Amino acid sequence: MQIIPIASGKGGVGKSLLSANLAITLGQAGKKVILADLDLGASNLHLVIGQISPKKGIGTFLTGESTFQEIIQPTEYENVQFIAGDSEIPGLSTLKASQKNSLIKNFQSLDCDYLIIDLGAGTHLTILDLFLLSPQGIVVTAPTVTATLNGYLFLKNAVFRLMAMSFKKGSKAAQYMTKLKNDSSSLQRLYIPKLIEAIQEIDPESAEKFKEKMSKFHPRLVMNMIDEPKDADKALKIRRSCQQYLGLDVESLGVMYRDTLQDKALSSRLPVIIYKPNAVISQAIYRVAEKVLQSETIEFDGIYEDTDISYEIASEEANEDYSQKLSYVEDLVGTGALSMGELAETIKTQQYELNQLKNENILLKSKLVKAAQQGFKV
Fold it and tell me: Are strands 80-83 and 72-74 parallel, antiparallel or unpaired?
């Protein structure tokens, strides 16, 4: 079975579009496919494939109302089964470690040729861990500044998460990273190849374990929503940044032009490759599927031996912190992925996001103080 988690650093770039249509295309090629909606908290993949809102899904499984086998539902598409998410269960967007491990165990035991997992946007630890179920995940991005930046950011966080999984608790490598973590801005500015050279000196065993995992880590990139041929250059620049700063080779699965037919297909409750197989976007999806069919299935060895990892360097907070986000911008500027004008726009956007986060934190702290005071009175 080839597991294909599909992620994006930013929402609205066509991740669910690719997930649904790729699953159907692989099914048309005679492959047994299971499509899972893991965009928890915002599950709507059933709309993309034209299914009615399922009564059983990830939510009912996690709450014990359904077995895992019961949530695997048939679809009207040849060789394709579907696992729905559930956006109506409070707190489902963030899973407990036991819930995540249960999902991982069940996913790995499925009987199919391809398991396609539509993940949520962002770099929450749950999303990173599910993306790292396979060395062959797909990142969907777009040529806009924020989409390009967040696509690269996602891959960088995935590498850090893979590093965290490679270093045992208490090892010299883990201790070294914990020390660096206290100065997060310096950590984020370190190039991964240089970082591993330093770890090689103090803990060769841990360094080799990480390098072995990295040698198998081959994420793939799809550049969606391009308007003209030059937009495709952004994919090459992301790949160059990953090679230089992360020591990571990213394969391009191709580009997809912006196509208004997708909106029409969605309103008709039909996947676009069913709605109009000859459309430009449909042909692009078929090309992506052909490359997937030709790819050899590879797996990480024992990556989830210890799923209760206390050392977690790749975190959602790293994605939201302003100073750390600037380091990703520097990486992209260094390889020409961002122009000076785009850099200015990005900084403004990030400053706005930082202010929003500060306001949310102030509100959250006030609620916690109030709750603590009420508890004290009781």
Answer: antiparallel
| Cβ atoms of 75 and 20 closer than 8 Å | no
pLDDT tens column, 38-85: 987 677 888 888 888 778 888 889 888 899 999 999 999 999 999 998
Which residue type, as a one-letter code, is found at position 130? L
> In this predicted model, which residue has the larger pLDDT, 72 or 182?
72
Closest CA to 139 of 33, 231, 219, 35: 219
Total Cβ atoms within 10 A of residue 355: 11
Q: Which residue matches tokens 């801005």? A: 185
- The 10s digit of each residue's pLDDT in 265-278 is 877 888 999 999 99
Distances in Å between the Cα of 322 and the Cα atoms of 210, 317, 357, 362 are: 28, 10, 10, 17
Please tell me what DSSP assigns to residue 71: G
Chain centroid to Cα 225, Å, comes to 18
State CA 305 to chain mean position distance: 21
Question: How far is Cα 318 from Cα 7, in angstroms, rounded to an integer?
Answer: 18
CA–CA gap between residue 206 and residue 173 (Å, rounded): 6
Using the predicted structure, report yes or no on whether residue 369 has a pLDDT greater than 70.
Answer: no
Over the range 223-234, which residues count as b (16 or more CB within 10 Å of their CB) and which as e?
bbbbeeeebeeb
The closest of 122, 125, 126, 161 to 139, measured between CA atoms, is 122
User: Where are any strands of DSSP class E within the chain?
Assistant: 2-8, 33-38, 72-74, 80-83, 114-121, 138-141, 220-226, 251-257
